[in-house]
Each structure stands twice: as C-alpha cells, then as structure tokens.
Specification:
By secondary structure, this protein is mostly helical. 63% of the residues lie in helices and 2% in strands.
C-alpha cells in the first residue's frame, strides 16, 4: 500500500471530527430518551450507549475491512485485507489506485489510516443506533444487540462499500458526501422493517404516549447539531474550503428546516411546538448530509426549508398505513435522507467541489439525478429486505418483543432491573 505524507492540520481537524461524531450517539440517546415515557428511559439510553461498545469492537475486527477493503473496485463488498486491523497503520496511504474523485478509483489519505478507520467507526456506531427510535418501548435488549451486530455486517458494510469505498454505486456516478444513503436511508429503511415486525405498542394509537422530558430532547438536539459539524465537514477528510462549505451548509439547512417544520406545523395544528422545532432541525441535518460538500449559495437553505415541511407532513404516514414508528425515524431519517439524496441531483455543482458532478440546475442534465434516485431506492430496498430477514430470524429464535407484562412494567425494570427516577 503506497504511503503519502501526513498533513498535521488535516490530522488535527479529523481528530476533532472523530470526537464530535462519537459525541452524537450520547446526543441521540438524550434526543430519543426525552421522547419516551419515563419507564423506558434507561432502556433507550442503554441501547444507544451499548452500540458504542459492541459495534466499535465489530468494526475493528471485521466490518472496516468489509466496508473499505478493495477500495475503488466498483464491486459489492470488501475483503479481509484489514481483518483485525491488519495493515491499518499510523501512516497515510493510497487506498485503491489514484486520487479519489466521485466515481473514481482511489483515495489519497493525508491523515493516518488508523484515524480514517476511527472516523468511519463513529458513523458505523450511530447509524444502527438511529433505528432505536422506531422500536422504542417494546424490543428485547438481547434481540437489539443481536440485530445491530448482524445488521452492521450484513447491511451497513455492503452499502458503505457501494457508496463510500468506490463500490458499484459510486462507479455508477451517485454522490453521497456524508451518508444520505449509507446512514439515513439505510437506517430509516431498517427502522421501517423492524417496527412492522414488532407490531404496535400496547395501546397505540388510542392511548396518548407523551414524551416524559422535552428538555432532554432539546439538549439532545443541541448535541446532535454540534456533533454534525464533524459528521459533515469532517467528511471532507481535510481542513479545507470544502469542509468550510459543508459546515456552513449544515448549519443553515438545519436552521431553515426548523423554520419550515414550524411553519407547516403551525398552519396545520395551530401552534408551534418545541418537539417540532427539534425534529425540524434534525430533519434538515439529515437532508443536507449527502449534499453538504457538493452544493453552495442558498442551496442548503432551500433544501432545509423544503425538508422541514415535507418531513412534518410525512409523520402522518404511520397513521395512514398503520405502522408504529414510535419516535418518527421513518418520517425524519428515511424521508429526509431520500429528499436530500434526490435534491442533490438538482443542486450539486462542480464550482463547489470539482470532485463531484453538476446537477440539473447547474447545467449537468439529468444524469446525476437519475443516479441519485437509483442509489436511494436500491439502498432502501436492500436495507428493508435484509433487515426484515434478520429481524424475522431473531423473532423465530430468541424473540424480538418483550412480553405484554414486561411492556407494561417498562423496559427499565424488565430489561435492566433499574429505574431512572426514584419513586
């Protein structure tokens, strides 16, 4: 593997970005934890925090190799070149052949390969953790652990290879700066599959199931927004102008989506809510993720504004079709990820990033748009199908769902023998 010089500035920025993205998972725990009922708070926190344990080990052992081995091969899955951290060094490297551009064959790292591995590990941790919002209040903890472990290997690794590691979708010409398909569509489709398999919470939708602590949710939103700077701007893998553009787009899209959500919510329901403001900001962060380093000007604001309104309206899908997506992972992450990935086909411009392609509005025709649609729906279909299959096998063996009695008691006591609050 050819070595390249290490850039100290890029390395410093990526060390910070890695810490920022890891911090997002506790932020997600607070975001979701505030929305569940008090008897399920620790169950939600444990699912998110435990992801940082089991998934980090699996990433180091095998998943990094499956995702990023055979970089730039245009294929379906990596190999065992990096199994158990073999040849993952403190030096920069060229993965594959040549310098990476969208659809190209290689990635020249000016940061240590071990740091690239650590940064990508934080993505692999938070992506399965996103799914917990759809299964809240009713999934066995041991079933959750088995599911996310199998999912990381069988779903996340292939999709990451297809898109992030020069696999077949990258070769096709699809763009995904920081994970619209790999993270959000992928997790959102899995969330839909699992909540269908699990069935509805006892009493839903007739019984009100109010959030137990919206201040927690607001704090979680702030942590996520803060951490997303590393998620998106860090995906430039350098402290450069593209990272700066991605950072700006990330913040403005979140701001615009919050406004878009609150406007539509007020028009429909009469009053703006704190939960709506928080959800709107997260929807904007989701939608800008694939676009962050490929769009400029007012594009991020327009993408965010549209996403905020559309994702609010998408919450009604679960009532219309009868699936109990407890904390609206489908409405925010799946729909938001789809919107961002497809809108990139309109707004992308090589004036911002010469390694991308021009979208429809930049005179690039419909090629990129077509490739974005293909990548989005291939990811959705693959993730849904394999996630459903994994969940079904678990359900037929150790069981997915807690008993009615345990659900009534709450996950805190039934799964962990603890309570979040003294009675």
């Amino acid at each position: 593997m050819p070595e390249v010089p290490i850039d100290a500035g890029n390395t410093a920025w990526m060390l910070i970005s890695t810490a920022l993205v890891l911090f997002m998972t506790p932020g997600l725990a607070f975001f979701y934890g505030g929305m569940v009922r008090s008897k399920n708070v620790l169950g939600m926190l444990m699912q998110n925090f435990f992801a940082m344990g089991i998934l980090g080990i699996l990433w180091a052992l095998i998943v990094f190799s499956l995702a990023f081995g055979k970089f730039g091969d245009g294929g379906w899955i990596g190999n065992m070149d990096f199994f158990a951290m073999e040849d993952v060094t403190q030096k920069g490297a060229i993965l594959g052949q040549g310098t990476w551009v969208a659809g190209g064959a290689g990635l020249t790292l000016t940061i240590p390969l071990i740091l690239f591995c650590a940064y990508q590990m934080t993505f692999a941790i938070i992506t399965p953790a996103l799914i917990t919002g759809s299964t809240a209040d009713r999934m066995k903890f041991r079933a959750y652990v088995v599911f996310i472990s199998a999912w990381l290997i069988l779903v996340y690794a292939p999709v990451a290879h297809w898109v992030f590691a020069g696999g077949w979708l990258a070769k096709l010409g699809a763009l995904d700066f920081a994970g619209g398909a790999v993270v959000h569509i992928n997790a959102g489709a899995a969330a839909l599959a699992l909540c269908i398999l699990l069935g509805k919470r006892k009493g839903w939708p007739e019984t009100p199931m109010h959030p137990h602590s919206l201040p927690w949710t607001m704090i979680g939103t702030g942590i996520l927004w803060f951490g997303w700077a590393g998620f998106n701007a860090g995906s430039a893998l350098a402290a450069d102008g593209i990272a700066a553009q991605a950072l700006f787009n990330t913040f403005t899209a979140a701001s615009a989506a919050m406004i878009g959500w609150v406007i539509v919510e007020t028009m429909k329901d009469g009053k703006p809510t704190t939960l709506g403001a928080a959800s709107g900001a997260v929807a904007g962060l989701v939608a800008i993720t694939p676009c962050a380093g490929f769009v400029g000007g007012m594009s991020g604001i327009l993408i965010g504004l549209v996403t905020g309104g559309v994702c609010f309206l998408a919450l009604g899908l679960k009532h219309r079709f009868g699936f109990d997506d407890s904390l609206d992972v489908v409405g925010v992450h799946l729909v938001g990820g789809l919107l961002g990935s497809i809108l990139l086909g309109f707004f992308a411009t090589t004036k911002v990033n010469a390694g991308g392609f021009d979208g429809l509005f930049a005179g690039g025709g419909t090629d990129l748009l077509l490739h974005q649609v293909i990548a989005s729906f291939v990811t959705l279909a693959f993730s849904f199908a394999v996630s459903f299959a994994i969940g079904k096998v678990i359900d037929l063996t150790i069981g997915l769902r807690v008993s009615e009695e345990d659900e009534e008691i709450g996950l805190d006591l039934s799964q962990h023998a603890e309570t979040a609050y003294a009675s």
